[in-house]
Amino acid sequence: MSDEDLISVDYEVYGRVQGVFFRKYTQAEGKRLGLVGWVQNTRAGTVQGQLQGPRSKVKEMQEWLTSTGSPKSHIIKAEFKNEKVIDSLEHSSFNIVK
């Protein structure tokens, strides 16, 4: 592990992000980057969750959530809030929450 800060950030993604495998792709990308956290659909038609890991990898995932997403998704915007430095990871893996 580098001496890079571990951070935690909450996110919500707006657009056509449900019914297009967005959660599955988000989970796969998070795992690929070595992040932990979760992702779930909301009743409002958005996708929300939390990311935790080294700052540079979280920033990379934020960029992915803002501009890439799943192949059939259409992202209007992504919002990030509650960013904070953490001492240790609060999740053990990256999960899809039903």
Question: Would you mind describing this structure in some detail?
Answer:
The chain has 98 residues and is an alpha+beta fold. The protein has a single domain (6-88), classed as Alpha-Beta Plaits (2-Layer Sandwich), CATH 3.30.70. Helix content is 24%, strand content 42%. The protein contains 2 helices and 5 strands; from the N terminus they run βαββαββ. The radius of gyration is 13 Å and the shape is globular. The mean pLDDT is 96. Belongs to the acylphosphatase family.
Alpha carbon gyration radius: 13 Å
CATH top level assignment:
Alpha Beta
Which CATH architecture would you pick?
2-Layer Sandwich
Number of domains: 1
Form type: globular
> What portion of residues belong to β-strands?
35-45%
Distance between the termini: 31 Å
Chain-averaged pLDDT: 96
Number of helices: 2
Structural class: alpha+beta
InterPro entries: Acylphosphatase, Acylphosphatase-like_dom, Acylphosphatase-like_dom_sf, Acylphosphatase_CS
Catalytic activity: an acyl phosphate + H2O = a carboxylate + phosphate + H(+)
Organism: Betta splendens
Protein name: Acylphosphatase
